[in-house]
């Protein structure tokens, strides 16, 4: 599935472009105001301040809404990784319920499965590598499942199998849940509307400025705050790249390697 164009552009580039466009939009609004004043010798319309305030409030609302969605999705992804590490660890420990001959075969399969799941995260945003890692993990999990089902036919393995099968179900199901969480993002339409409202707000802020000269410090500060906030929203929504990532949570799965020593 192809990602929208907005998600293909690096977050830092989007934030930098927004910063520059905000300064330009503010300057454009300020120049248009001066041109109108020179032409008509009138003051600004009475509704300009109220319109600016309403638009600023709407922009702040959408910005807070977007930040909340991105933060909640980031937390959900982190929890799913931890949950998967727990599910794999539980299933791996239950291999010890079987005789050594069966236990060794299962642990060898689990070791390959863990490496496939580590490769899934290491793939980053590379869709081909992600697809290959998912396919490989599915192959190993299917092999483990078939082996456990075959072993369950032995009456002597009834109790171990009753413990292992639910653990395997959880381990396999979390893969689908986690991949769905990877795909789920802040809706592009929300981010697009937010970008448009931000630029309009920058324009109106310049248009309603009643001073003879622009205060560049205020303009740059305004543009910087909005750009940084949007950058954080984009970073939270892209945990497989950038400075905000899920490396600490993924380490839980990497640490499972020590269980095979």
Mean pLDDT: 87
Q: Hey, roughly how much beta strand do the residues contain?
A: under 5%
Number of strands: 0
Low-confidence stretches: none
Helix content: over 70%
Largest sheet: none
Based on CA atoms alone, the radius of gyration comes out at: 27 Å
Could you characterize what this model shows?
By secondary structure, the protein is mainly α. The protein contains nine helices and no strands. Helix 4 runs antiparallel to helix 5. The chain starts with a helix and ends in a 7-residue tail after the last helix.
Brief write-up:
The protein is an all-alpha fold. The chain has helices spanning 5-8, 11-40, 47-93, 100-122, 127-152, 158-183, 188-207, 216-236, 247-254.
Key traits:
single chain; 261 residues
Layout of helices and strands:
Layout: H1 5-8, H2 11-40, H3 47-93, H4 100-122, H5 127-152, H6 158-183, H7 188-207, H8 216-236, H9 247-254
Helix pairs in contact: 2-7, 2-8, 3-6, 3-7, 3-8, 3-9, 4-5, 5-6
């Amino acid at each position: 599935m192809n990602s929208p164009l907005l998600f293909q552009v690096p977050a830092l580039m989007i934030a930098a472009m927004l910063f520059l466009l905000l300064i330009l939009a503010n300057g454009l609004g300020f120049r248009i105001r001066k041109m109108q004043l020179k032409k008509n010798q009138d003051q600004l319309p009475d509704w300009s301040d109220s319109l600016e305030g309403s638009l600023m409030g709407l922009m702040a609302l959408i910005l807070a809404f977007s930040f909340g969605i991105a933060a909640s999705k980031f937390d959900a992804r982190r929890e799913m990784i931890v949950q998967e590490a727990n599910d794999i660890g539980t299933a791996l420990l239950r291999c010890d319920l079987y005789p050594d001959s069966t236990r060794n075969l299962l642990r060898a399969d689990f070791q390959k499965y863990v490496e496939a799941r580590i490769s899934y995260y290491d793939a980053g945003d590379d869709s081909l590598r992600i697809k290959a890692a998912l396919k490989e993990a599915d192959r190993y999990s299917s092999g483990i499942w078939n082996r456990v089902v075959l072993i369950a036919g032995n009456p002597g393995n009834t109790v171990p199998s009753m413990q292992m099968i639910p653990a395997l179900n959880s381990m396999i199901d979390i893969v689908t849940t986690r991949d769905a969480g990877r795909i789920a993002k802040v809706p592009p339409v929300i981010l697009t509307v937010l970008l448009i409202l931000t630029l309009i707000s920058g324009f109106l802020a310049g248009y309603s400025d009643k001073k003879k000269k622009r205060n560049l410090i205020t303009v740059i500060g305004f543009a910087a705050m909005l750009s940084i906030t949007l950058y954080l929203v984009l970073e939270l929504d892209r945990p497989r790249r950038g400075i905000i990532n899920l490396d600490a949570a993924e380490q839980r799965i990497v640490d499972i390697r020590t269980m095979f020593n």
